[in-house]
Amino acid sequence: MKKQRGFTLIEVLVALVIVAIALGAGIKAAGALANNADRLAQVSAAQWCAENLLTELRLNQQFPDIGESPVSCEQLGRSYGGKLRVSPTPNPLFRRVDADITDDQGRPMLTLSTIMGRI
Where is the Type II secretion system protein GspI C-terminal domain (predicted)? Predict the structure, then answer.
């Protein structure tokens, strides 16, 4: 009787399972990379909004009043909202200014802070 060569059905199925697991992991990793890239673009745009708001405040050359005020801006075709919070510091010649930026659904994206002095 002649011995047959080739793979058994079990060997083929095990190889297919290994390939399926590897492909599934690869697809999951690619999806995570795409989500991270989108999140990075959103946070970068939110940071530009915050920087623009704080720069505008500095260019006005006025000592900001203590309190909160709503803000909004648009970057990369997306709308961002949030608030500017001005709070006192131990030194009355300085104020802390926080730009809290949220996405279009109101979820916090980032907070950028600075200290402004009386001119």
Answer: 40-116
